[in-house]
Write a structure and sequence with these properties.
Rossmann fold, five-stranded parallel beta sheet, 460 residues, Helicase, Ruva Protein, domain 3, 4 domains, alpha/beta, 47% helix
């Protein structure tokens, strides 16, 4: 598992097979894709240590992929491979961060030496800069290595030691409190308190006391003096979740607290000063709340210093499998269950469900499955609704095959030309997969590049 990960992007099956043979005995994890779309899909899920990138791809120019890697700052070394080599191409490739440049044809020795040098330089750079591997499988309490989450990790790491307020947005269940906790743990305040308040869970008339504290007798029921979250978070981090739920009157007091670092406990005339780092979050559109008059514009701009958006689970690719496995092991231990994995069909169900409730819903589904079933491996039939109605890919493929066979046995009065039948089958498969061409190609058992070429020829 510690071997460097190498991704080969080459659309020619014969050349791809030859390069794989060249590298068969190398101590690497080698994977191969055949199109630009497949490459970008791969990069969305994880980053290879080295990308061997052919420039002439069936669906896009490899330079566009290189430029995207460069602009997004992905920690991925790129070696350009092309039969159309030139000095200009080499210069362009190097300007966008390519590590080396190979002109076809080349032999096994040249490929091995180039790859070895690229990996060596990569290791030396990490040693010199004291860097740990940025392509993280997890980060503090987060689990997942998708590209969208790597961006989140980078923002947290860059902003952690600043005192600037971080404004976290994202759907319910995406892990906004985990994000705030990660900011705190990555900062110099990690040994001080982390205090979290859910503004939607506390009655409005108690919220001021919850944040600023109160003196004995300040209001009915205040039988003891109580410290508020602001004082408890002194020298640490105060996380205000669902900030858009806060009452407008209290928003003005919060604004003053953020500006001056001072506050008055309820019932007190004395001003107290604290040093607090603010992180706030909402599952709403804060600018829309400002427009509707429910959130102060001046408070929005005071808080919205470093925006950080958490992607929904449906946009995190294979992260759902990593998170599901992590949750399963924890829940199995809590419930003293024998479950330890998901079978292939169950994994496909997890991947193809939309997860409107995000990670929170995933955890509830897994707990339900573990409590109500028994075994070592979870299968699709064990899932509660609505996951129990989701068909895994292999089932969909069998259904599609059965439908095609049933049409063969029907009485046919008219036979379309073969190319029309082929086009109809391809378009149905793509529609069946909601426009995901690599997935449709998998169902049809052809290369994605084949579908891209046929689609392009039909457009022409």
């Amino acid at each position: 598992m510690n071997k460097p990960r190498v991704l080969l992007t080459e659309d020619s099956p014969s050349l791809a097979a030859m390069y794989q043979a060249y590298l068969r005995d190398e101590s690497i994890q080698l994977e191969q894709v055949s199109s630009g779309k497949e490459t970008l899909d791969y990069l969305e899920r994880q980053w290879p240590d080295v990308l061997l990138l052919d420039l002439m791809l069936p669906d896009m120019d490899g330079m566009d992929i290189l430029q995207r890697i460069y602009e997004q700052g992905l920690n991925c070394s790129v070696v350009i491979i092309t039969a159309h080599g030139s000095v200009d191409k080499a210069v362009d490739a190097m300007r966008f961060g390519a590590s080396d440049f190979l002109s076809k044809p080349f032999d096994a020795k040249r490929l091995k030496v180039t790859l070895a040098n690229t990996l060596k330089i990569r290791r030396l750079n990490q040693l010199v800069h004291g860097a740990h591997e940025p392509n993280r499988e997890n980060y503090f309490d987060f689990v997942g290595n998708s590209l969208s989450m790597q961006r989140v990790y980078r923002v947290i790491e860059s902003a952690a030691n600043s005192k600037a307020t971080i404004f976290v947005t994202g759907e319910s269940g995406t892990g906004k409190e985990l994000c705030a906790s990660a900011v705190h743990q990555a900062s110099g305040r990690k040994d001080a308190p982390f205090i979290a308040i859910n503004c939607a869970a506390i009655p409005k008339d108690l919220m001021e006391s919850e944040i600023f504290g109160h003196l004995k007798g300040a209001f009915t029921g205040a039988v003891h003096e109580r410290k508020g979250a602001a004082q408890m978070a002194n020298s640490g981090t105060l996380f205000l979740d669902e900030i858009c739920e806060m009452d407008l009157e209290l928003q003005s007091k919060l604004l003053r607290f953020i500006q001056t670092g001072t506050f008055q406990p309820v019932g007190s005339s004395q001003t107290e000063k604290v040093d607090v780092r603010f992180v706030c979050a909402t599952n709403r559109d804060p600018l829309e709340e400002v427009r509707l008059g429910r959130f102060r514009e001046d408070l929005y701009y005071r808080l919205h210093v470093i925006p950080l958006h958490l992607p929904p689970l449906r946009e995190r690719g294979d992260d759902v499998l990593q998170i599901a496995q992590h949750i399963l092991m924890r829940i199995s231990e809590e419930e003293q269950s024998r479950f330890c994995s998901f079978d292939q069909s169950a994994q496909q169900v997890l991947l193809h469900y939309d997860w409107p409730g995000n990670v929170r819903q995933l955890e509830n589904v897994i707990r339900n499955t573990v409590v109500l079933n028994d075994g070592e491996q979870i299968t699709p039939v064990m899932f509660p609704a609505p996951l129990s109605q989701v068909q895994p890919v292999d089932t969909m493929a069998r259904t599609l095959t059965a439908e095609l066979k049933s049409t063969e046995s029907a009485v046919v009065k008219h036979v379309d030309p073969l190319w029309k039948q082929e086009r109809r089958a391809i378009e149905q498969a793509i529609d069946f997969c909601d426009g995901n061409i690599p997935k449709a190609a998998s169902l049809l058992e052809v290369s994605p590049s084949t579908l891209y070429r046929k689609l392009q020829s039909w457009d022409n």
